[in-house]
Design a protein that fits this description.
The protein is mainly β. The protein has two domains: about 90 residues, no CATH class; about 35 residues, no CATH class. The protein has no helices and 13 strands. The strands form three sheets. It has an eight-stranded mixed beta sheet, with no helix packed on it. It has a three-stranded antiparallel beta sheet with strand order 11-13-12, with no helix packed on it. The protein is globular. The two termini are about 30 Å apart.
């Protein structure tokens, strides 16, 4: 964490605005700037990434987590800017980390055919709908 501004109290929720490191595992790979804009936090994130895996930026604060989205190319770096409602995050100092995009390793694409019963109904909790090569299906994260 770098240069946080003092804690502020808003409707009983303590939050910290400032600049924080974004980590991939234990390695810092970028930084996130957190600003308070009305009823939202505005996150401006920039990272230096290598490899072919798309990365998703997550923020954890207190006992809550928020998915900020997938890093996109921004000049010679990767990044994103997003607003998140204040009530979506808990109290405390936010921690930022990268996770592989769902659909990468540890997941499986299962085609869905409307005329057949779907055998994976019990595994749908973390799944999402996707179209690959013109075939509609779900991606199940394992």
């Amino acid at each position: 964490m770098k240069d946080p501004l003092p804690h502020k109290l808003w409707q009983g929720v303590i939050f910290v605005v400032g600049t924080y490191e974004i980590c991939l595992g234990a390695e810092p790979v970028g930084e996130a700037v957190v600003e308070k804009v009305g009823l939202y936090y505005r996150f401006s994130c920039r990272c230096r990434l290598r490899g072919a895996t798309m990365q998703r930026i997550m923020v954890a604060c207190g006992d809550k987590k928020a998915d900020l989205g997938i890093c996109v190319p921004v000049g010679d770096m990767f990044g994103l800017t997003k607003k998140v409602p204040c009530k979506q995050l808990g109290e405390g100092i936010p921690e930022f980390f990268l996770t592989p995009r769902p659909g990468g390793s540890g997941s499986r694409f299962v085609p869905v055919y409307p005329e057949e019963p779907f055998a994976y109904m019990s595994k749908l909790k973390g799944a999402f709908l996707e179209i690959r090569n013109g075939q509609q299906g779900i991606v199940i994260t394992e």
